[in-house]
Automatic annotation (TrEMBL):
GO terms for cellular component: endoplasmic reticulum membrane. GO terms for molecular function: fatty acid 2-hydroxylase activity; heme binding; iron ion binding. Belongs to the sterol desaturase family. SCS7 subfamily. Pathway: Sphingolipid metabolism; Lipid metabolism. Residues 1-61 form the Cytochrome b5 heme-binding domain. Zn(2+) binds at H175, H180, H198, H201, H202, H256, H260, H277, H280, H281. Its cofactor is Zn(2+); Fe cation. The chain crosses the membrane at residues 117-136, 156-174, 211-233, 239-259. The keyword Cell inner membrane does not apply. This is Cytochrome b5 heme-binding domain-containing protein. Heme binds at H25, H49. Keywords: Endoplasmic reticulum, Fatty acid biosynthesis, Fatty acid metabolism, Heme, Iron, Lipid biosynthesis, Lipid metabolism, Membrane, Metal-binding, Oxidoreductase, Transmembrane, Transmembrane helix, Zinc. The lineage of its organism: Eukaryota, Metazoa, Ecdysozoa, Arthropoda, Hexapoda. It is found in: Endoplasmic reticulum membrane.
Length: 315
C-alpha cells in the first residue's frame, strides 16, 4: 500500500498529514487505510489510544507548523539547542515530558565530538563487536582447553549459550531498574543520566541515529561485567561467558532496530515482539521491559497482555 505525499486524517476540526508516520504506526497501514480523509476521533476513543498517541498526532498537523504553543510541555525546552543541558531544569515535569513522544531528530550535546559519539548507525554495532566476539571465543577456547584439558565443543557451546541467557537477564534488568529508574525532580544529575542513557529514546523513538547503543559506553559496561565475572568464575570461563553475553547484546541491538523499522510477517515471533515493544513505548512505559524475549517479564510479573485483533497488522 503506497501513499505519495500525503495521507490525511481529521480529529474534530483539525487536519493531519500522517504519511510519514504510516510505517511507524503500531496498528499498521491496513488499520489506518479506511480512515484516509476521515475523522478518527471515535475510532481513537473506542480503541483506547493512549495520551501519548494524541500527543504524537500533533506532530503531523497540516497547517505547516508544529503548534508547540498549544503543548505546554514542548514550550519548556528549545529544540534548536542541545537537549541534555536543558532537561535538568524540567524538574518534576521531566517524567511527563520525556514520555510524550515527538517525531523529530534530537541534538544531545553542543560539542561536535561528543555529539558524534552518541550517534550510531545500526551497522556499526556488528561491525565493531563481531570481530571482538570471535577473538574472545578463540582466546577463551584456548584458555579453557589449556586449563581443563577438555577440547569438547559441547563445553564451549554451553558457556557461550549461558552467556546469551545471562544477557537476556541483563537486558531486562538494565531496562527495568536502570533505564526506567524514575529520577527525583529535585535531583538534576539523575535526570541528566536517565535522559542520556534511555529517556531520549522514548522522547524521539523514530530518530534512527539513536536506536542502537553507542560502542563506547557499551565497552565500559562490558568491561564492568567481565570484572564481576572474574570474581565468580575462572578467567577461561569468564571470557567465554563474556563472548556469549556480547553475542546476546548484538542480537538484541539488531532486533531492537528491526522491531522499530522492520515489517515482520503476520503471527511470527518477531511480529508479536514488535506489537509488544510498541505497547511499551506508547501505552505501558512501566511494563514490557523485555525486547528480545518476554520470559523475564513473565517471571517478574511485568508482562503486557496483547489484545486480540480482528485482523493481522501489516506494517
Amino acid at each position: 500500500m503506497k501513499y505519495n505525499g500525503s495521507f490525511n486524517i481529521f480529529l474534530k476540526d483539525d487536519k493531519y498529514n500522517i504519511q510519514s508516520f504510516l510505517k511507524y504506526h503500531p496498528g499498521g497501514v491496513n488499520y489506518l487505510a479506511p480512515y484516509e480523509e476521515k475523522d478518527v476521533l471515535d475510532r481513537m476513543k473506542n480503541t483506547d489510544h493512549s495520551k501519548a498517541a494524541y500527543y504524537l498526532l500533533e506532530e503531523y498537523k497540516s497547517d505547516g507548523a508544529r503548534l508547540d504553543s498549544g503543548r505546554d510541555l514542548e514550550k519548556l525546552v528549545n529544540w534548536k539547542e542541545p537537549m541534555l543541558c536543558q532537561v535538568g531544569a524540567l524538574g518534576k515535569q521531566y517524567k511527563d515530558w520525556v514520555n510524550a513522544p515527538v517525531d523529530r531528530e534530537l541534538r544531545l550535546f553542543g560539542n561536535e565530538i561528543l555529539e558524534k559519539l552518541t550517534i550510531t548507525p545500526w551497522y556499526l554495532v556488528p561491525l565493531i563487536w563481531i570481530p571482538v566476539i570471535c577473538y574472545l571465543i578463540k582466546h577463551g577456547t584456548e584458555k579453557y582447553e589449556e586449563i581443563t584439558q577438555d577440547s569438547s565443543t559441547t563445553s564451549i557451546a554451553f558457556y557461550l549459550l549461558l552467556g546469551v541467557i545471562l544477557w537476556t537477564l541483563l537486558e531486562y534488568s538494565l531496562h527495568r531498574w536502570l533505564f526506567h529508574i524514575e529520577p527525583s525532580g529535585n535531583f538534576k544529575l539523575m535526570i541528566y543520566i536517565h535522559f542520556a542513557i534511555h529517556g531520549l529514546h522514548h522522547k524521539v523513538p523514530f530518530d534512527t541515529r539513536r536506536l542502537v547503543f553507542p560502542p563506547f559506553p557499551a565497552a565500559i559496561i562490558a568491561l564492568v561485567i567481565y570484572r564481576i565475572m572474574l570474581f565468580i568464575v575462572p578467567e577461561s570461563i569468564s571470557v567465554l561467558l563474556l563472548a556469549g553475553t556480547l553475542l546476546g547484546y548484538v542480537s538484541y541491538d539488531m532486533l531492537h532496530y528491526y522491531l522499530h523499522y522492520g515489517a515482520p510477517k503476520e503471527n511470527s515471533y518477531f511480529y508479536n515482539l514488535k506489537r509488544y515493544h510498541n505497547q511499551h513505548h506508547f501505552a505501558h512505559h512501566d511494563s514490557g521491559f523485555g525486547i528480545s524475549s518476554i520470559i523475564w517479564d513473565e517471571i517478574f510479573g511485568t508482562a503486557i497482555k496483547l489484545k486480540h485483533l480482528n485482523m493481522n497488522i501489516r506494517w
